[in-house]
Amino acid sequence: MDLRESAGGVAGRAGRAGLGAVLAGLLLCMAPVRPSAGEAQSGPGPGPVPAPYTGLDLVTGNDYAPYTGEDLPGGGLVTELVRQSFAVGGRRFDVRFLPWKRGYDGVVLGRFLATFPYVRTPEREREVLFSDPVVEVRQYVYLSKRSAMEFHGGGTGGDSGGEADFRGRTVCQPAGYALPAELEEMVQLGRLTRHTPSDLGACVRMVAAGRADALVIDEYSGAASIARAGLAEEIRVSEQPFAVVTLHLVVGRATPGADAMVAAFNDGLKMLKQQGIYDRLLAAHTVQPAP
């Protein structure tokens, strides 16, 4: 710590006999330096010891209301849940908003600490560790009114009827998002055509214009993105959900301390639920889905 200068010019009179006592008093009274933004901190008084700051930030993406987005209150529902889950354990991290693929790839490569919210897929399981479910949601099929396609149910956990409805059709999947495993397999086999625009809003517009038959997305972000685009009159919603899925925080498997970080997050999330904070945040952020 540099004490060569002080408001009273103490260092300039180093020859005085009382200087040692003055400096000792200054050292005892001086407050600790505040950590930089994103650095782990502990709250006042006794509590969990914060994990060492790794120099890595949390990262998420935009255009995924009500879960994440720079333009949403608190950065969105999941952003607030993630921040507060870490905070109850004495951890503070910056959250950066980046393109989805760039953020996810950065986590896999160890450039960022964690990202969210992500659905489990076999490919992702090989690259990242998944937290406990942050939010459970129902996925619906959003259909163009310009398309004759219908969806009769039978997605994940059901029979093959749902897959048959997609055969020969065109589905929209935003960059950085994942198709349900059954539909991904159909794309790979050439039974389903996929468009991959840059964001969810572009997919909504493609479906509304009839350039894609369908979009499979959860009910809350589907309702929010369609309302934002003002295209509710151009899009139909399937009566039956395609699947029930969970959204997670993920940490790269190669990141040092990955298991401990996921465990700390899970503990914090449990505390939010026990304290009633989780339910209050859910009610404050979620958009009522279409009937």
TrEMBL record:
This is Amino acid ABC transporter substrate-binding protein, PAAT family. It comes from the Bacteria. It holds the Pfam family SBP_bac_3. Residues 59-283 form the Solute-binding protein family 3/N-terminal domain. Keywords: Signal. Signal peptide: none annotated. SUPFAM superfamilies: Periplasmic binding protein-like II. Transmembrane segments: none annotated.
